[in-house]
Amino acid sequence: MMLLRRAVSAAALVATVLPLAVASPAQAADGSSACRASASVPLDAEQARLSDARTTALVERAGLGEFVRRFPAALCAARGPAEADRLVADWGEALWQASVRRAQGQRPGGDLAPGDDRPLYWARLGMTAALARWQPEFAADRAALRARFEDASRGLTDNAFRSAPGVRRVFISGFDPFGLDAEIRRANPSGSAALQLNGRRVTLADGSPAEIRAVVLPVRYADFDAGMVERAFAPRMAAGPASADVITTVSQGYPGIFTLEDWAGRARSADPYPDNVRALSGGTREHPVTAPGLGPGPEFIRTTLPADAVTGSVQTPYPVLLNSDVTEIPAGGTTPVDRTDGPTPGSRAVAGGGGGYLSNEVAYRSNRLRLELAPQLPGGHLHTPVLTGLPADPGQLTGPEFERAERAITAEVRAVLEHAAVLR
C-alpha cells in the first residue's frame, strides 16, 4: 500500500432551473445598469485552462452552456453589493442543482454520460472567470462574491437533509478533478459519486432507510486554509434535524482498489505536487507543515467507521481494504519512518493513509471537527480506485470503458455507505 501511494434546447432547460430572482440577459441589456467586462484581468492558473476548447465542449455536451453564457449579463443587472451577493448565490445553487439533476438522469441535455462530473467543474470555472472580469459601477467585494458562489455551486448551501424521523442521515464529500496539466480530460470519481448520490434515499444493509447529502470540494490549498471544509461539515454536526448520523469524506486513491483509511494525519507533506492553481503546501516528507488556521487536535485521528463490516461485505467489482499505513517522525526522532500498522505514541504526523495531500487533509479536518462537536459520530475517509478508460485519442472526451468505470465506482461507493451507515 505504501508503494502504491508513492507510485501513484438549452435556454429552456436553464429557465426551468434558475431561480426567478436571477436576472436574465434581457434585463441586463435594457440599459438599467452600466457594466463592463475586462478581458485584461488576469485569470488564475485553474481558470486559464479554459483556453483549451475541450473544456467548453465538456460544458456544452452536458447542456450547461447557458449557465456560462448568461452569467455575465446577469452580473451586469446587479444594482448594488447586496443584490450581487444574492445573485451569485442563486446562480451557484442553480448550477449545483442542475448538475445533480443531470447526474441522476432527471435533467436531459447533451450526450455525455449523466454521471460525468467534469461539466460542473468547467462550468463553475467559466462563471468564476466571468466574475473576475466583471467591472461593476459600484464597489464589490469580489473575493467574498467568489466564495459565496463557490459554496453555493458545491452544495454547501440549500442542501439540507429532508428526511423524516427514523431515516439515517449520511453526509459525504467528493473532490474536483485534478492533475489537469498532465491530462485536461481527467474526471474525479469521488465528485461523480457525490453528484449521483446527493439527495438519494437508499436502503441500508439492515433494511433501514437513509438519505445521502453531498458536497464537492476544490483541490486548492487556499480554500482549505479559508475554512471551506469546516463550513461544509460544521452544520452537519450541530444537534437537530440538519445533523448527520455518519460522515465520510471520499477522494480518488489507488489503482484498482477501494481503501478505507485507518488514520488521517495532521500534516501537509505532498510537495512538489501542486494543487489545481499550481500552489504548493510548503510541506515535504522531510519537513511536514501544519495547515494555516487548523484548530487544535492530535497528530493522527483514527477512523470510527465500521471497517470490518464494510471490508467483510463489499468486495466487488473492486476489493475494499483497510489501509493502516502512516508516515511519522517518531518521538525524539528527526527522520520520517513508514509504518504499516499505524502511528506510535508521541510521534509527529508526516502522512496518513491518504498521504500528505488534500485527500488526507479533508479527512483530518472533518474528523478533527467531529471530535470537537460530535465525538459519537462515525466518521472516516474512503479512497476510490483511479478512474481509467479515457480514449487514447486526446480529442475524444469520453468512451464506453471510462463511463462503465465511473458507474461501477459510484455503485460501490453507495454499497460501502449502505454498510457503513447501519446503526450500531
From TrEMBL:
What is the recorded name of this protein?
Answer: Pyrrolidone-carboxylate peptidase
Q: Which UniProt keywords apply?
A: Signal
Q: Where is this region: Disordered?
A: 274-302, 326-356
Signal sequence, renumbered to the chain: 1-28
Specify the superkingdom.
Bacteria
